[in-house]
Amino acid sequence: DFITKYRTCRQQVRVSLGKVDHHEGMSSDDELPSTEMTEFQKSKDDILEDTRKIFEDVRAEFSNIGQILLKFREWKEKFPDSYCDAYISLCLPKLLNPLIRAQLISWNPLEQNFTELEEMPWFGAIEEFSDAKNVSGSK
């Protein structure tokens, strides 16, 4: 079994390095060499920097989810037939996907002080837009 061989190999490495503070069944992430951790952190920082650059030359009205949804709300209120014929409810998820993904790239729910999805600005904007859609739909 591969997993058993892998665990045995890691155990032998710990013994040869004199690490006796390992508890069986606990995560062995701390056993990564510092060079690997440094490389990982550098790679992560590079990705986050590239992500910040993606929308830096885009006007706010086209890169801010709240402002995009405001334009769609205005469209729906002024031209409801056109809005309905364009199947906007089917298009919005695909339109907003890259913007949301760019904001979620640094989100890690396993960190101790992570932000809940419901607390993110884009979530509130979508929730408000959905409520406005339901309210106007009931009229």
Automatic annotation (TrEMBL):
Keyword Nucleus: yes
Highest taxon, organism lineage: Eukaryota
Record key words, sorted: Nucleus
A biological process from GO: mRNA splicing, via spliceosome
GO terms under cellular component: nucleus
Keyword flag Transmembrane helix: no
Residues covered by the GCF C-terminal domain: 66-120
GO molecular function terms noted in the UniProt entry: DNA binding
Matches recorded under InterPro entries: GCFC2-like, GCFC_dom
Subcellular location: Nucleus
Family, per entry: Belongs to the GCF family.
Stated name of the protein: GCFC2 factor
Source species of the chain: Crypturellus soui
